[in-house]
Amino acid sequence: MDKMPKWADVLLIPLLNLVLALVVSGLVVVLIGQDPFEAMAIMVRGAVGSTYGWGYTLYYATNFIFTGLAVAVAFHAQLFNIGGEGQAQLGSLGVALVCLFVPWPHWSLALAAAIAGGALFGAAWAAIPAYLQAKRGSHIVITTIMFNFIASALLVYLLISSLKAPGMAPETARFPEATRLPFAQDVFAAIGIDWSRSPLNVSFLVGLAACWLVWLLIWRTRLGYEIRAYGQSEPAARYAGISQVKIVMVTMLISGALAGLMGINAVMGEQQRLLQDNVLGAGFVGIAVSLMGRGHPVGVLLAAILFGALYQGGAELEFETSVPREMIVVIQALVILFTGALDNMVRDPVSRMFLRWGRRKPTPQPAGD
Amino acid sequence: MAFQDTDTGRPGAAPDPSPGNRGDGATPAIELRGISKSFGPVQANKDIAIRVMPGTIHGIIGENGAGKSTLMSILYGFYKADAGEIRIHGKQTAIPDSQAAISAGIGMVFQHFKLVENFTVLENVVLGAEDGALLRPSLAKARKLLKQLSDEYELHVEPDAKIEDLGVGMQQRVEILKALYRQADILILDEPTGVLTPAEADHLFRILDGLKREGKTIILITHKLREIMETTDTVSVMRRGEMTATVRTADTSPEELAELMVGRKVLLRVDKTAAQPGAPVLQVEDLRVVDSQGVERLRGVSLDVRRGEILGIAGVAGNGQSELLEVLGGMREGQGRVLVNGEPIDLTGTRSDARTRRRRGIGHVPEDRQREGLIMNFYAWENVAFGYHDDPAYNRGPLMDQAAIRADTEAKIAKFDVRPANAWQEARNFSGGNQQKIVIARELERNPDLLLVGQPTRGVDIGAIEFIHEQIVALRDQGKAILLVSVELDEIMSLSDRIAVMFDGRLMGERLPSETDERELGLMMAGISDTGGDHDIAEVERNLAHPSGDPHKES
Amino acid sequence: MDFLTVIQILDSTVRLAIPLLFACLAGLFSERAGIVDIGLEGKMLVAAFFSAAVAALTGSVWLGLLAGIAAALIFALIHGLASITFRGDQLISGVAINFLASGMTVLIAQDWFSQGGRTPSLSGTGRFNSIDLPGANALEAAHAAAESPGMGLSAIYWELLSGHTILVYVGFLAVPITWWVLFRTRFGLRLRAVGENPGAVDTAGVSVVRLRYAAVLICGLLSGLAGAYLATGLAAGFTRDMTAGRGYIALAALIFAKWRPVYALGACLLFGFLQAVSNRFNVIDLGLIEIPNAFVLALPYILTVVILAGFVGKAIPPRAGGQPYVKER
Amino acid sequence: EPGLVIDLGGKFDKSFNESAYTGAQRWVEETGGDYMETELQSEAQREQTMRRMAERGANPVVVLGFANTSTLEKVAPDYPDTKFVIIDGVVEQPNVQSIIFSEHQGSYLVGMIAAMASETGTVSFVGGMDVPLIHKFACGYAQGAKAVNPDIEIVQNMTGTTPAAWNDPVKAGELTRAQIGQGSDVVFAAAGGSGVGVLQTAADEDILSIGVDSNQNYMHPGKVLTSMTKRVDNAVYNAFEMGEEIEPGINILGIQDDGVGYAVDEYNEELITDEMKSAVEEAMEGIASGEIEVHDYTSDDSCPVM
Ligand SMILES: Nc1ncnc2c1ncn2[C@@H]1O[C@H](COP(=O)(O)OP(=O)(O)OP(=O)(O)O)[C@@H](O)[C@H]1O
Ligand SMILES: Nc1ncnc2c1ncn2[C@@H]1O[C@H](COP(=O)(O)OP(=O)(O)OP(=O)(O)O)[C@@H](O)[C@H]1O
Ligand SMILES: [Mg+2]
Ligand SMILES: [Mg+2]
User: Fold this and answer.
1) CA distance D274 to D282
2) What is the per-residue pLDDT for A2?
3) D69, containing H or E segment
4) What sections of the protein cross the membrane (chain C) (predicted)?
5) With a 6 A CB cut-off, is A366 part of the ligand 2 pocket?
6) How far apart (Å, rounded) are the C-alpha atoms in residues D270 and D263?
7) What pLDDT, in 10s, does the model give residues B415-443?
8) Which residues, in sequence order, are bridge partners of residue B37?
9) pTM for this model (two decimals)
10) Is A1 near ligand 2, meaning CB less than 6 Å away?
11) Number of residue pairs across A and C with CB atoms under 8 Å?
12) CA nearest to C231 within chain D
């Protein structure tokens, strides 16, 4: 019942929230005795000041696109999937299995199979919480948290037993050379542009495609229509003959698959082997990305790049000053806090402002019945 | 600060400083001046003034959404007014919260009860009015006092029963006892009879009379003109957030009140020809529904609806009518046998959903358009496809054909005179009546063989009511079957060709509108189907404690 | 496995169950009042850090304890602000709090001590030392001297009951106190009511906001104790992310316990036991199958899912849990 | 300008990383030089961190710990002009020097001391992550103890199977308690940051402990029997000193190179009797001369005495 224009909702408010989060982060930097402006300058320069910076920024962004879309899709059905972390871990496992055990003749075939493997394993890991939510009403937030822990236990177990490569570290063998994805530097070199070495690879394009497909799914297909309707009102969905079980299951499977796709970037694109922790909290960053992006793929893409820059900038910051990398975790927490939990702190006054402004200027009332 | 002058805030303690008192010299128990309140863009109360004399019953009537509950909630400190002042027994009193209202001697029974479901009656009564930090002494004292109160006012309840095990009528008693326990001498009741049978309502009014005789002041909100005429001393009428009149009940008539309420002359009867019933479209045999808590909501319902007739189901809210519509509409599962056009339909399993029902020619106007019938954040055009979104005409391959849906929407908006005629407006920004028109347009234009209609005119203004009634009758006249559920007896009486009454998940019997009256239907609604004999209060009392009622259903 | 080993595992169970128990009771107060709290982990973590940091700086574990509690209270207030005052999403707020704690603690630790996100090791009055119950040492000595089989039982006293830090005993005491407060006092009645139907509390003239803040603060206090015990009782100093998911296990225990204090004790002891067993044995050999350690550690999480699935009785949370109390839309 | 990549657990782990850090600091103090340093926070960062070091021109780049092996194998060929040094791991690349310590020899010495100090006839070992490297410690320790007392009981536990095991003092403490319950009165911790918990618990429960890597005697004066020193500091110092001239290949540091040893200082003087000293000195000579052969677990992934 707010009279706030749409642009305020999708642009103004997230921006104000972001500014607040950054201001508070700046205060934290001051608190630990550093110059926040200088820190900011280092981060910006580190993240977007060179092709090296861009490479890493977009590499991280690719991870966040997948996990952000995963959270966003589930949000449309009013499902809060905080299991992105575990789903991405399992997705990574799927990608690793595909790369390790099938002799691929060419990276493109391997990529296609890895996409299938990552999505399948990610979706499978979301399936049980989804089923329990749909059929037994077990709260998906709690079950997905639990599944994150179970996933990491499972991965540890596999990496110290059947999948372990010879050597001491809990990791798999390196993937065959044929599964190596083209890196940005390779692609740019082919067209004569000099691009620094970075792990940015073709998965980024897969991420962009995923954004477009998710947009199509949510706003153009029947399934997306049903997902949104279900998310808005469960009784209405029942009235319309939209099956609750189907929507919860399908949405979570899509969400888990998207999270699982992260594996193609992190595992196949960069590490070329499965480690114990490939996800590095990206599942959780997805929450912040989705909140900031207001659940829209374009928003998710922009927010993912912002967080990618934050991660890369944070790494540079740690390298150049004594501000530890945890600074990014703090900024991320503050973004989640301000855009997610404290949203009304900004929204209430802003919508009141618009209301007052709207009252002063007499708007033509549409005729009642 | 709670409020000023607690010690002088009792009956007759202070002289009324305000001029313009009525001749009898007494100070009003309650006086509100210039109360305004808006919820975001909705102005629920506009500059309202009202005064109520001590020891009287004051009625407030008005359409749905007129702002009655809001006003009373302000008086009770539940909402904070944007402007205005409150005087209790002549003293200006700030009521920032319910604590202040309680201290000022005000008690309120909300339209949607405010009880903790898994607490006992006793715990609910003492909640917030405990005597000390420890619970046990408070509970013991309350038990004694409760017994005293229930003897005094014939308000018997079982102190150790859990609220969730009690019927609606009983729960209402708990609410009244709560107020009395807090020694309220001003009692506000917001639509107390909406969930009661006529007999239960009679009992309530006897209690209110007793309270009044003791000198307590009562404010009664109701939609029912008859109750106003029979019980109140004075009555105020609200319309669209404003107080349009306050009159002595003795000086007015139902017709005048109705006109004040809606702002023009009202015609409550529907013009329609006699029904021409044909072959049965819907045949229901021994239909049963058990809800998620394991309570049997329908206990073997059998009925027929034929082509070209309207079967009205009357009953107090919460007696299984909603479940009947839901199970027929495919929103919940049931057991029994249901035939549509002679063919059985699945009552369980994947083919018992609403989508399958629509394919079988069943249209459904749900009871709660905002919760069920519409997606409030979807545009009008998205809502027009709602439920029929897999219609091939609305789709092109895997994608939805938005242009086709919008074109269809424009046509329906024009035909049903939805205002504003804007397919790109979100459903929540249409008024209640226009929202209902969107639902009706969507369902009726599909030309269903059987139309399920629940509360078609709830919260809809009088102009739209007439339009909606006409559309329903027109559908009947095309030879369709219509099953109508409404808690408004007037609506049932005027629209139905046959009337069945539901009580506690069973049909109590069927009547023709021409051969029955509200009194008889009222008794049936209380579960007393034998119209010949006498009915003692004990029988009504037993039904009152039935846990089938569900006052929260519509909230 | 001999009797003494069993006693030792149980002894370890007690130590490991206590942080879970404090956190679980913390969650109990909060959730009973309708505020879902997945930020227990974060509150424990800040409390662990500040208690260890202040104890290291001042040499007094009691000052450390106070600091830990204060830090947890501040985080509790943030959660309250988000979920009560600004009616935000409680889950999201909890997620944010966990991240904030995880980042802040390392950041500040690095700034204060530059020891890679840890505090200096605590010793002497800087940490909670174990308390020997009267006669425990004598009995242990007697046991060691006399190899008589009957003496074994005395180990229950000198090994299991005696020799814990004061916070362990406080933790056990907190269970009956919680029960009493919830079910025998006016405050408890109101607290439970506000988690079931805040509207009823509001219209009964009691402030929903104040009650919920009270609950959230009690939650802060108890999670503060949990964190302080972890860093200054169980361990001797703070290490990065030292809570290691205990906040989530506490949440799991809360569900397991169906939001009841005495059951909470049982659930926490069970989960503590699982941890103790997995500490002790890297592989659990059940004859037919061997359970790898990773799965023993994951067992609390698996059990919680099973409970949530309703296979072992249904856990019905407080009805108004997770939703902000909104009067005016 | 040399570079140092400090491994998970942090530079103040009082043990392995700290030893490396100390070596680097000593180099700074003595030469007035400057070096680049960065601390890993997670497994998956290894590659970016190494690359950044190399790209920024650090030379040589010293990485600590066996966990870097596979990453370095991948990274080193990309930077042929940069020299890398890996400690505790073997990478066969033309620009990598691999430094390996004979931890089994040092452990043998402290095993002897433990057996001599034990009154109960049971000593114990708490390892970090369950990897062959740690078994190498454990096996040397057991051999040393058995050499003194063939009937001695040796209890052995690991804190875990993942890198988290290096940083779990609480679990390490619980394991120590369990070992004490089994009769142990001297415990050797080879568990990185987790060792803090072992030493703490041993001090609390009034038994003796043995530190590892760095000299940890000072942590609980009078309670730490000795420390098995592994001179990572010297290795780092030497690498920094050699600079770009460092030779590729495998470099094994044993007792004779002063790469491993045991520590005596003012904190444990009173615990180390002359008898212990002479026995150990004798053994050191024996090992150096090849007279005593201490079995290296990693040579065949087995331990003959366990
Ligand atoms: N809590 C609220 N937040 C926002 N709007 C509200 C709220 N309560 C009521 N309103 C709006 O205020 C107006 C008046 O509502 P109110 O409940 O006072 O009407 P009423 O006269 O009691 O109607 P009814 O007969 O249906 O009970 C309506 O438009 C309603 O939608
Ligand atoms: N949030 C809104 N944004 C835009 N227009 C609105 C909004 N809310 C209400 N309106 C418009 O204000 C007018 C009055 O709305 P309201 O809900 O008060 O109608 P009403 O008088 O109750 O009518 P009805 O009897 O049909 O319910 C309607 O024309 C509606 O379109
Ligand atoms: Mg009302
Ligand atoms: Mg209206």
Assistant:
1) 12
2) 47
3) helix D69-75
4) 12-33, 45-78, 90-109, 160-182, 213-236, 248-274, 294-313
5) yes
6) 13
7) 998 888 899 999 988 877 889 999 999 99
8) B45
9) 0.87
10) yes
11) 149
12) D170
Higher pLDDT, C37 or B203: C37
Q: What is the pLDDT of residues B446-456, one digit of tens each?
A: 999 999 999 89
B455's CB contacts (< 8 A; 6+ apart) are: B367, B368, B485, B486, B487, B488
The predicted complex's ipTM stands at 0.84
In angstroms, the Cα distances linking B81 to B31, B44, C67 are 14, 10, 43
pLDDT top residue among B25 and A345:
A345
Chain C residue with minimal CA distance to A284?
A: C95
The bound ligand whose nearest atom lies closest to the alpha carbon of A5 is 2
Q: What is the dihedral of CA C322, C86, C103, C229, to 10 degrees?
A: -60
H or E segment to which residue C220 belongs? helix C208-228
Q: How far is CA C30 from the centre of its chain?
A: 13
Mean pLDDT for chain C?
A: 88
CA B536 to each of CA B199, B523, B541, D236: distance values in angstroms, whole numbers, following the listed order: 10, 12, 9, 100
Q: Is C190 part of the contact surface with chain B (CB cutoff 8 Å)?
A: yes
Please give, rounded to a whole number of angstroms, the shortest distance from the CA of C35 to a CA of chain A. Answer: 13
Q: Which of D10, D174, D197 sits opposite C117 (nearest CB)?
A: D10
Q: What are phi and psi of A47, to 5 degrees?
A: -85, -40
| B432 within ligand 2 shell (Cβ under 6 A) | yes
Angle at B26 between CA B23 and CA B28, to 5 degrees: 110
Q: For residue B338, list its beta bridge partners.
A: B284
Cite the residue boundaries of each domain of chain B with CATH code 3.40.50.300.
1-105+187-192+217-261, 280-373+447-544
- DSSP symbols for B64-116: TTSSHHHHHHHHTTSS--SEEEEEETTEE----SHHHHHHTTEEEE-SS----
Q: Is C133:C165 a contact under the CB 8 Å cutoff?
A: no
Cα B545–chain centre separation: 20
Which among A52, A165, A168 has CB closest to D132? A168
Report in angstroms the alpha-carbon separations of C300 from A143, C22, C256. 12, 17, 10
- Answer yes or no: is the C-beta of B41 below 6 A from any ligand 2 atom: yes
Give Dmax over CA atoms of chain A in angstroms: 78
- Does the domain at B1-105+187-192+217-261 match CATH 3.30.70.2750? Answer given as no
DSSP for A85-153, written as a single string: HHHHHHHHHHHHHHHHHS--SSHHHHHHHHHHHHHHHHHHHHHHHHHHHHHH---HHHHHHHHHHHHHH
Kindly list the structural domains of chain A, giving each domain's residue range(s) and its CATH number in brackets, ordered by start: 35-356 (1.10.3470)
What residue has token string 């004859």?
C287
| B244 CA to centre of own chain | 22
Identify the closest residue of chain B to C188 by CA–CA distance: B135
Q: What is the pLDDT of residue C151?
A: 54
Residues A169, D70: C-beta atoms closer than 8 Å: yes
- Output the CA torsion sign for C109, C110, C115, C116: positive
Q: Chain B: nearest CA to A359, how far in angstroms?
A: 9
Structure tokens at B25: 């010299």
Domains in chain C and their CATH numbers? 3-129+136-308 (1.10.3470)
The answer to whether A272 faces chain D, any CB pair under 8 Å, is: yes
List chains adjacent to chain D, taking adjacency as at least 3 C-beta pairs closer than 8 Å.
Answer: A, C
Residue C326: its pLDDT value, please? 86
Residue to test with chain A: of C93, C105, C118, C301, most A Cβ within 10 A: C301
Helices (H) and strands (E) in chain C, counts: 13, 4
Q: Is A169 an interface residue toward D (CB < 8 Å)?
A: yes
CA pair distance C87, C149, nearest whole angstrom = 62
Task: Kindly tell me the sign of the dihedral angle through the C-alpha atoms of B505, B510, B513, B516.
Answer: negative
